[in-house]
Amino acid sequence: MVFILTAIFVFLTTAVCAQEGFYETLVNKGYEIVNIENDGVRQYIDNRAYDNPELVGNYNYSIVTKYSKGSSSRPAGIKLSWYSETPKDEISSVKVTLLESDVERENVFHKGDLASENLKFYYPDINSQEYLLCNMRPQKYCYYIIEEIYKNGQANILKYGRFYTTGRVRMLRVDGMHNVRDFGGWDTSFGKKVAYGRIFRGNRPENITSKGRNDFVINEHVTADLDLRGTKLPKSPLGPLEEVEYFCTNNQRYSYALAGRAEALANDLTIIADVLRRGGSVFLHCNHGVNRAGTLSFVIEGILGYSEADLCRDYELSSFAYGNFRSKSLGDMFPIIRSYGEPGDDLAQCFYNFARSKGVEEYTLDTIRCIMLGLSPEDPLILNAHGRWYE
């Protein structure tokens, strides 16, 4: 036992040292290291209390209150600053161009421009000389250029730079909205991490500003709005119908949503799979992004193979946006889901069986798993789930 503990300690120490060495190398190359999570969220996620079997199923107990009090759910970001002597009446706009890359790039700023690929654009106030840049994905090499655009159309580069992002939970700043976060980054029972940038959750989008729409809808390529509130709007507040598909379903929350025929949940999963299959990204929401959105997120995350501990962690992240709470209703859902399993079935299989029993097609569930986990439809991890559910 002592030998095992010593080996684990040595492994973890070696991993930490290697990571610190990696960051030190980047800093020496001129990168700033930026954690996408704010301090409260980071400390909450790092606390592994919910991995304790005695605590994960105790829905009267919560560790989120230790970290969420007074903490925003929004990321800290990186503050960019620059200097310009150009008279304001000569400037049409200021533009920040950002490239996020999985690999380190050379000559990114060649001829004063970024590579012509998947870029993000942000527009600071021309009267300011600083800007809080947010919503980057983690583990990315990031390169930016700040330009002032003159009224004659010419551009002048004010600054360029680079940084590297760390962290896991990707909460987003969206002007006019709250409790917006990405499904990506979580570990799963399939041995794969959930992909970033394909499914988002949050609160009602009616108050989104033009800045929020640029930063979220345009830069994150959100193509579908799944409204769970049951009262259909003429179109999505996120944008024109030709840009953002609008779907409206009438959902309930918690155990009420899982009981009976659960037609709305089944319809939701079909809509999401169709959007993902077409290469789009979907934003699902209710009024606060907690109850109805939380229930649908619970089902999707369970299908993707989140552990029970991580299902609890993710659910409670909404507390950072709205206050300190842990709804016992979350605990009411687990027995319902587990009732759809047979001896030996893991939690992900129970979620799969639940969805199939509500009429969701294998193809729909496989699509969500394949796209969100980067798996092939013929992967045994996908095929092994088939034929193991019951009425």
What's this model, at a glance?
The protein contains 14 helices and twelve strands.
Notes on the protein architecture:
With about 400 residues, this protein is of the alpha/beta class. Helix content is about 35%, strand content about 15%. Helix 7 packs across helix 13 (about 360-375) and helix 8 crosses helix 12 (about 345-355).
Q: Numbering strands along the chain, what is their spatial order in the largest sheet?
A: 1-7-6-3-4
Integer-rounded radius of gyration = 22 Å
Percent in helix? 25-40%
- The tally of strands reads 12
Could you tell me how far the N terminus lies from the C terminus, measured between alpha carbons in angstroms? 45 Å
Task: Give a quick account of the main beta sheet: strands, pairing sense, barrel closure.
Answer: 5 strands, mixed
Q: Which percent band covers the strand fraction?
A: 15-25%
What's the average pLDDT?
Answer: 90
- In DSSP terms, counting alpha (H) and pi (I) runs of 4 or more, how many helices? 14
SSE order? HEHHHEEEEEEEEHEEHHEHHHHHHH
Q: In terms of structural class, how would the helical and strand content be classed?
A: alpha/beta
Q: What characteristic shape results from the CA principal axes?
A: globular
Low-pLDDT stretches are 7-13
